[in-house]
Amino acid sequence: MAHSEGAVVMPVQVSDHVIRSLALPAAGLSSPALAPLFAYPDGCSLVIGFVSPHVDFDAVARALRAAAPAGCGVLLVTTAGELCGRGSGSPYCAADGAWDQMVLQSFSRALMAQVSIHAVPLSNEDIRRGSARLSHADRLKRIQEHLERIAVPFALDHRDTFALTFVDGLSRSENYLMEAVYRARRFPVAFVGGSAGGKLDFQHTRLYDGKAVREDHAVICFVKMAADKRYGIFKTQNFQPSGKSFVVAEADPWHGVVKSVIDPKTLRTVPFVSALADSLECRPDEVEARLAKKTFGVDVEGELFVRSVAGIDQAGGAVTFFCDVDFGDTLLLLDAIDFVAATTQDFDRFLHGKPRPIGGILNDCILRRLNNAAQLSRLETFRDIPVAGFSTFGELLGININQTLTALFFFDGDAGFKDALIDNFPVHYASFKGYFESRAASRMRMLNRIRAGLLENMLETSGETLKIFEDVSEALRHTDGLDSSLRSLHDGMTRQAGIMDAQQQGRSAIAGELGQLTEDVKGIESVLDALRLITGQTRLLALNATIEASRAGEAGRGFGVVAGEVKTLAGNTRSALDRSQASLDALAASASSLSLRMDEAARQLEEAAVETRAMLARVSEALGNAQAAHSALSGRRDQLSRHREIMVGVIEQAEQVTHLDG
Q: 359-365 and 330-336: which strand pairing?
């Protein structure tokens, strides 16, 4: 497919006079190039344009609207790649780099007798800003109010009417739209289409309804087939169930994030990535690689509808999906099968009993293009059938799906034409509508299971709770005794510390008296020293007197006797003084030894006092802790007492509920 500027317009398929397709670059967009699209004998009822996101969308809209004849509906949608049958080979057009292309498909009134196009605001501005403020119910109500203003100018009959629907591919509102459709109860026809594609920076997708370029909207084109024409709805995806499934617990449906799933055995929630790692028998950091050939899906009355992974948050344990996923949804893990074989086999089954298609509109997920790139050139399932379409950011068939091809094929038909989906559409419509109701019911069932498990656990643990109450009461009795013992110990140690302080003071007084005794002994020694001096001098005088008496002869005999007596007295005095000195020395030595022993006793007493005061501090702290524990246990006992009363009431209610459930 040539993409260069000024390339020649190439008519790809012309199917008699009911469907025509053109593939052309932006430079080839001109009135002469577009004219063949509208040249039907019965007039053109609708033209659809699948436009590369690298092309000036507004310019294409203006040019196509200007070229289209009056009464011809115009629909445009940006793509993530275009599809166009070229008589043979794969329908996938090249979409590398900033590709410059659009595929246009027009329909004759001989095929589509009437069309009615309507733009529906999705009230998703808060979701686009990343902070969903509207509640689920409020969002549905707003969309439903817009839907109820739609006036379709012809009768809606699922056998000859369908709703071709394109949605802003970044709105995350496809299922809100469809749930609102079913709540409105005004459109009993099949809704088929896709979410607008765009660049893979996921910044913008655009739609055109023939009046204005739209974002944050859905564009619904109600199509009434001509009386002799029929349509069929084709759906294919290349996955099959693996036998593993996960029930969603915590989810953010506005952003498609699943944070945790429910363990079916314990009914406890676990991070989704952890659950996947356990199921796939790998480490959490290997989960993404293990999912390369897998995807997820939901079951709608036996039909698989794919839910594709957009990203994995290893740190948070969460998985983001391209579709909304909510609490209670059961996600089936699917294994990939051969892309070409699955598409061909499904199409063969679809065509069984039908005539050759006149043409078709293809809505094909971008992930099918990206994940099966090596097989695209081998897909010749639609050889020789005039088809056109686009790679979408999501598909629509009653509900939002991913990694699926949904298509409308057109046939010449009569009363004998058979199509399983159309012939049984009321059943499928009920299934699609019931999908949203079943999600709510599934959430309720899961809540009931959790409730039942909770009641069972409460019944099992109620006895333990009551035992804890008794244990706390027993602990309080023990803390009462401990508190009393600690108080007695504290008081005794306080008294002991007082006695030791008094002993310390008495020791200080005795030490002072011993010091005074030492000073007194020293004073006596001074007196004794003086007496020794006097005694010595007396002895010397007595000696001199004796000498002088001997010299005096008989005259000095009496004086000599006196001198001798004095000498004897001095000697006795000296002896007495020596004995007194010895006694004083012994007294001083005893006082000194006693002082040393008292100092040692005082040191030991001080150490004992310090230890006693430290022990007293520890006892005081223990007493404080015991009192705090006693206070805390008392409060806990009061709480447990109230809790016990509540538990008794809950147990009675649980038994009643269990009886009713039984």
A: unpaired
